[in-house]
Amino acid sequence: TAPAMSSLAAVREGYERFDPRAYLQNNYVPPRADFSSEDCVVPWKLRCLAETFASGEIRGRTLIDVGSGPTIYQLLSACDHFEEIVATDYLAVNREELQRWARGEPGTFDWSPFIQHVCKIEGRG
Ligand SMILES: C[S@@+](CC[C@H](N)C(=O)[O-])C[C@H]1O[C@@H](n2cnc3c(N)ncnc32)[C@H](O)[C@@H]1O
């Protein structure tokens, strides 16, 4: 129908303007990523993920993360439970952002505070 088509076009248009760096800056630096406070959204998400994967209820050979965006924090607690993890995203800009990070290119987002926090809540050194 016409309204469905126009809302689809609006979604497509919104996605075409998506800026991974702005998304990371808005959502994955303080105040949202304040590791000194457990009430803060990012440490809360990391704890939920750590508890979920530690429960052993989600396991298998391959984990497919649908809609990874430009982020990897959601996969940190999954690493020990899967042989292979596939990150996916609809947008090329997000896939490219992750590819740049995986290649260790300079100027990519620094996930090390997230990795350190996950090590801490999982009781690792
Ligand atoms: C809310 S973002 C989540 C990003 C990231 N995982 C995070 O936690 O911040 C959802 C992502 O899903 C992607 N997406 C939407 N529909 C999709 C689809 N059908 N297949 C793959 N990715 C999709 C979008 O491009 C967007 O990056």
From TrEMBL:
<dbReference type="InterPro" id="IPR029063">
    <property type="entry name" value="SAM-dependent_MTases_sf"/>
</dbReference>
<comment type="similarity">
    <text>Belongs to the class I-like SAM-binding methyltransferase superfamily. NNMT/PNMT/TEMT family.</text>
</comment>
<dbReference type="InterPro" id="IPR000940">
    <property type="entry name" value="NNMT_TEMT_trans"/>
</dbReference>
<protein>
    <recommendedName>
        <fullName>PNMT methyltransferase</fullName>
    </recommendedName>
</protein>
<keyword id="KW-0949">S-adenosyl-L-methionine</keyword>
<dbReference type="GO" id="GO:0032259">
    <property type="term" value="P:methylation"/>
</dbReference>
<keyword id="KW-0808">Transferase</keyword>
<dbReference type="GO" id="GO:0004603">
    <property type="term" value="F:phenylethanolamine N-methyltransferase activity"/>
</dbReference>
<dbReference type="GO" id="GO:0005829">
    <property type="term" value="C:cytosol"/>
</dbReference>
<dbReference type="Pfam" id="PF01234">
    <property type="entry name" value="NNMT_PNMT_TEMT"/>
</dbReference>
<keyword id="KW-0489">Methyltransferase</keyword>
